[in-house]
Design a protein that fits this description.
- It comes from Isoptericola dokdonensis DS-3.
- This protein has helices spanning 6-9, 13-27, 43-56, 62-67, 72-76, 83-100, 104-120.
- It has 127 residues and is mostly helical.
- The mean pLDDT is 95.
């Protein structure tokens, strides 16, 4: 018998969809973050983030099958990811994580990763 993945432990696809939906509700009205999404509709970005997070946490490997290696720094390089953008991203993601009402250990593990990822993607300190 195998140990369930984090993806399975927190509820699978539906939980990640909810996380991403709530996150993008905040992004949609954020004057700094919204311009970083070229599509009129945030739908494609939602799908990409959902697939990425699901794969990272032990779910389906659809992200890599469709898009290859995540290459997060490279994919974010064209955008100004400064401390303000990072903080805004984290603010919206915090609301999204809190909306899931996860067990404390799961919430902590997820938030730790999201914080580390956000800090690692800073590519400038200019406004």
């Amino acid at each position: 018998m195998t140990t369930p993945s984090f993806f399975e432990e927190i509820g699978g696809h539906e939980v990640f969809v909810r996380l991403v939906d709530v996150f993008y509700e905040g992004v949609a009205t954020d004057e700094v973050l919204r311009p970083m999404y070229p599509e009129e509709d945030l739908g494609p970005a939602k799908v990409r983030l959902t697939m990425f997070l699901e794969q990272y946490w032990g779910g389906p490997t659809t992200y890599s099958e469709q898009r290859g290696h995540p290459r997060l720094r490279m994919r974010h390089a064209p955008f100004t990811v400064n401390p303000d953008a990072r903080d805004r991203w984290l603010k919206h993601m915090r609301v999204a994580v809190d909306s899931l009402d996860l067990a404390p250990a799961h919430e902590s593990q997820l938030w730790d990763y999201l914080e580390r990822a956000a800090f690692s993607l800073i590519n400038t300190f200019e406004q």
